[in-house]
Design goal:
Layout: E1 7-9, H1 13-17, H2 19-29, E2 32-37, E3 40-45, H3 48-55, E4 60-61, H4 91-99, H5 105-125, E5 135-136, H6 137-142, H7 144-154, H8 161-173, H9 177-199, H10 205-215, H11 222-235, H12 237-252, H13 254-262, H14 267-278, E6 287-289, E7 293-295, E8 298-300, E9 305-308, H15 310-313, H16 350-367, E10 372-373, E11 395-397
Parallel strand pairs: 1-2, 3-9
Antiparallel strand pairs: 2-3, 4-6, 5-11, 6-9, 7-8, 10-11
Helix pairs in contact: 5-7, 5-16, 7-8, 8-9, 9-11, 12-14, 12-16, 14-16
Protein name: Cytochrome P450
Pfam families: p450
Family: Belongs to the cytochrome P450 family.
């Protein structure tokens, strides 16, 4: 404890294995905790109302310091690495207003008919990847789907899509030589896609953005357009991990799986509940205090990092009835989860991620009624990532 504030060691095996219990224990000790790892420390709001308020509080800002850039990025690519996520108002607000019409819930719903064939094609291909009776659903379904969706969104030609899958896999790995090589390729592909859509407008995201640029007198620069495509590739990691986590949980809870098969109309609510209960985000992107701020009797100094415990807030009994219970039919009128954050930096692609997950789970459960985990649930290999709850692999039998 630091002055009565609970501490969470992010390197502790117990925290790595079960962060939900660790953050829940801290939440019930108090509304503020301190999380730390070698070279890193962060104040976190542990309870739902407080976390939600902080995410919407202008005294805490996202800056370039909120992100750790991977090593090995070529210097000429650096101007494209500063995405909208890193920007604060008014720069963030300007870009968000320009691109938001391309990411509405209606736009995501309209995209569903184009998304469904992408899902079906991956499911058709699963038996080809069987190895000793099992297939890795992470490698051959959850991971390639978001990059296929991005290719469809930005109009990447079919012939180029296998390369983009390789780029997506390299970006998902997060570092290493493949990551450094993927960035210039993604940016070059984005430039080419933008040029194609300028010459031949289509029904896709880039055409929407080009129209926004033209309507706004060119204030959306070409660099910002290319950066937006790069941001989409990064954001694709959320549906990868949400789909994989959701499948693992459903296959580990046969009663919930049976209910969802029997009541497929529950799928939209089920996706929201799965995002609350096993969503990939454990901690929000760190914010930095713009001034000295007192939080629950603790002085947070200007420049100190503050975050929200998404894992703790999403299971806060002050906001959710019986929060430790997975309820796929949880009433829609309950508090909205914080899995897509809140406030000015609420995830712009949330509607698309929801539709993508709904379509993926619906088709997977329909196509493979005998789907089962190829290993015991507790044997799942998870990435030891303090900010994200995600799997290395998801071996299943079909």
């Amino acid at each position: 404890m630091t002055s009565g504030v609970p501490e969470i060691d992010l390197t502790s095996p117990d925290v790595v294995a079960d962060p939900f219990t660790a953050y829940g224990r801290a939440r019930e000790q108090g509304p503020l905790a301190r999380v730390s790892a070698p070279g890193f420390s962060l104040w976190v709001l542990t309870r739902y109302d407080d976390a939600r308020a902080m995410l919407n509080d202008p005294r805490f800002e996202i800056t370039s310091g909120s992100f750790t850039p991977p090593p090995g990025i070529p210097e000429d690519c650096l101007p494209y690495m500063r995405t909208m996520t890193e920007m604060e108002a008014p720069e963030h607000l300007r870009l968000r207003r320009l691109v938001a019409p391309a990411f509405t819930a209606r736009r995501a719903a309209d995209f569903r008919p184009r998304l469904e064939p992408l899902v079906e094609a991956l499911l058709d291909d699963l038996p080809r990847h069987l190895d000793d009776g099992a297939v890795d659903l992470m490698a051959h379904f959850a991971a390639p789907l978001p990059i296929d969706v991005i290719c469809e969104l930005v109009g990447v030609p079919d012939a180029d899509r296998p390369r983009w899958r390789e780029y997506g896999a390299a970006v998902a790995a997060g570092s290493g030589q493949r990551f450094g090589e993927a960035i210039p390729a993604v940016l070059e592909g984005a430039r080419a896609a933008i040029a194609r859509r300028r010459a031949e407008p289509g029904d896709d995201l880039l055409t929407d953005l080009i129209r926004a640029q033209d309507d706004d007198g060119g204030r959306l620069s070409d660099t910002e357009m290319v950066t937006m495509v790069w941001n989409l590739v990064l954001a694709g990691q959320t549906p990868i991990n949400l789909i994989a986590n959701a499948v693992h949980v459903l296959l580990s809870h046969p009663d919930h799986l049976a209910r969802l098969r029997a009541e497929p109309e529950l799928m939209p609510r089920a996706v929201e509940e799965l995002m609350r209960w096993c969503g990939p985000m454990l901690l929000s992107i760190p914010r930095y205090a713009r001034e000295d701020v007192e939080l629950f009797g603790t002085l947070v100094h200007k420049g100190e990092a503050v975050g929200a415990s998404i894992a703790g807030a999403n299971r806060d009994p002050r906001a959710f009835t019986d929060p430790e219970t997975l309820d796929l039919g949880r009433p829609a009128g309950t508090a909205p989860h914080l899995g897509f954050a809140h406030g000015p930096h609420f995830c712009l692609g949330a509607s698309l991620a929801r539709v993508q997950t709904e379509v993926a789970l619906t088709a997977l459960l329909r196509r493979y009624p005998g789907l089962a985990l190829a290993a015991a649930p507790h044997e799942a290999r998870r990435v030891p990532d303090p900010g994200t709850w995600r799997l290395f692999t998801l071996p299943v039998t079909l």
